Amino acid sequence: MTTTATEYFPGVSKIAYDGPDSRNPLAFKHYDPDAVVAGKSMRDHFRFSVCYWHSMRNAGADPFGVGTRNMPWETGSDPVEVALNTMRANFEFISKLGVDFWCFHDRDIAPETPDDFAKTNQDLDTVVGLAKQLQGETGIKLLWGTACLFVHPRYMSGAATSPYVDAFVHAAAQVKKAIEVTHELGGEGYVFWGGREGYDTLLNTDLGREFDHLARFLHMAVDFKKSIGFDGQFYIEPKPKEPTKHQYDHDSSACHAFLQKYGLVDHLKLNIEANHATLAGHSFHHELEYAAANGILGSIDANRGDMLLGWDTDQFPTDLYDTTFAMWTLLKSGGFTTGGLNFDAKVRRQSVDPEDLFHAHIGGMDAFARGLKVAAKIVEDGRIPDFIAQRYSSWDSDLGKRIEAGHVGLADLEPIAHQRNLASVPSSRQEMLENILNDYIC
Ligand code: XUL
Ligand code: CO
Predict the structure, then answer these.
(1) Are 72 and 56 in contact (CB under 8 A)?
(2) Topology annotation, domain 16-381
(3) Which is catalytic among the residues 30, 45, 54, 105?
(4) Is 105 a catalytic residue?
(5) Distance (Å) of CA 440 to CA 101, 295, 381, 402
(6) pLDDT in tens, 140-157
C-alpha cells in the first residue's frame, strides 16, 4: 500500500529568487541565498529561522475575538496526531520557503496532558522523533529550543521567580526535558525568555529574592547542560514588560548587569528581539549595538512593533532603516556564530490564508536582504565609519591614549585643561550623515 503525504500548502511551490524587477509576490526580489555580500553568502549572513509558535500554532485570537486563521494541518482525532500533522506542515512550509532553521517551545510542538507530566514528556518524545526524522530528510536544523513557562496557571506568579518553590521545581523539570530534546535535535542554542519572571506589584513581591532565584535556576541549567554534553549556546531574551508590568530581563544592559552580578556572563548571550527593544524605549539598533559592544550578542528575534499601538504586536519586519542598522551592527561584530535571525513574528488577524505565511516571511527576508546590501555599502563606501573614526581621533593623541590606558588622574588633567581652555567642539553632522544613509537606501 502506498500513502501519499498530505500537502498543506498545495498552491505554493519552492520560493525562488526572481530579482528586483519581478512582480511575482511569491518570489524573493532581494534575498538570493547564494549571492555573496561582504564576503559571505546571504544564507550564512542571516541563518533565517521560522518560529513554530506563531507560524504553525497561533490562530490569531486577540482579547476581543477568537482565532481566524485557516490552518489545515490542525486535523486529526487526537492531540498527538494533530501535533504530528502540524510538524509535517512545519517542515513543508520551511522547505518551500528555503529557510535553514526552525525554533520551538516544548508546549508548541506537543500537547500537555493535565496532571500527567510523564505522559506529557512521552508525547513530546513522540513528536520530537518525527521532527528529527524530518530534519534528516530536509536538512533543516534547529536554531534553538525553549520551554513554555508562562501559559499554564501554575506559572501565573512566575516560574524560576515564583514565590512558590513547587513552581520553581516544576519549571526545573520542564527545562531539563526541554534541554534534552533540544540536544536530541542537534539544536545550536537554547533560549530563556523570562515569560512571567517579573512582577505586577511590589506590594506582594520580594524583588531581591526573585533575582537570586532566577540566577540559581540558570546556574542549574548551565550545570545540567554540561552534564549531558550539550554544547549549544544559552541565550536570555530581554523584554521590559508584557505579560508582567515589570519583567526582570528588562533590556540588554539590565541583562548584562544581571549576568555579571551572578557569574553567568560566560554562559549566556542575548537573543535580541526588535519589538522588545522598542517596548523598552530603545531602538532595535541600540539593543544590538549594546550587546555587540559587550560581547554578548548571540541571536536575533526579528519582528517590529507599531508606533501607534505600543504593545508587542510581533509584526513582520519591513522597515529598511531597522534592517540596515541591524545588519550594520552584525557586519561590524563579525556576524552570527551559533545564532541566527528567527522570525518571532505573526501574520495579522485578517491574514487568514496559509499563503499569507509565505508573503510575511518573504517580505521579512527581502527586507533583511536589502538591509544587508545597504549595510555593506556603509562599510565599503566608508564615509560614515570614517566620520565616526575622525570624530574620536583626538583620543588617538598621546593624551587620549594615556587617559584610556589609565595613566593619568584628575590632578594631571587640571593644568592641561587650564592651558587648552576648551570653548567649543565640532559639529556632529547628524543631518549630513542621514543624507548619506538615504542615498545608500535609494
Ligand atoms: C515573547 C517572545 C517569546 C520568546 C521565546 O514575547 O518573544 O516568544 O521568543 O519564548
Ligand atoms: Co522572542
Answers:
(1) no
(2) TIM Barrel (3.20.20)
(3) 105
(4) yes
(5) 30, 28, 10, 38
(6) 999 999 999 999 999 999
pLDDT at 2: 44
Q: So what's the pLDDT on residue 4?
A: 62
- Residue 125, C-alpha cell as written in the block: 518524545
The predicted pLDDT at position 287 comes to 99
**Helix, coil or strand: residue 242:** coil
Domain boundaries, the chain: 16-381, 386-441
Query: Of ligand 1's atoms, which has the minimum distance to the CA of residue 273?
Result: 7
pLDDT at residue 5, as a whole number:
81
Q: 115, 100, 119, 130: which is closest to 31 by C-alpha? A: 100
How far is 304 from 268, CA to CA, in rounded Å? 24
d(CA 182, CA 315): 27
Are 337 and 299 spatial neighbours (Cβ–Cβ below 8 Å)? no
Q: Which ranges of 312-353 would DSSP assign to H, the alpha helix?
A: 320-332
Residue closest to 143 by CA, chosen among 341, 333, 358: 341
CA distance 178 to 442: 45
Which residue is catalytic, options 100, 106, 108, 251? 108
| Cα–ligand 2 centroid distance for 193 (angstroms) | 7
- Verify whether residue 108 is a known catalytic residue: yes
pLDDT attached to residue 3: 52
Q: Whose CA is nearest to atom 2 of ligand 1?
A: 193
**Spatial CA neighbour of 103 closest among 162, 53, 37:** 53
Cβ of residue 251 lying under 6 Å from some atom of ligand 1 = no
Query: Which residues of the chain have a pLDDT value below 50?
Result: 1-2
66 CA distance to ligand 2 middle (Å): 23
d(CA 274, CA 284): 5
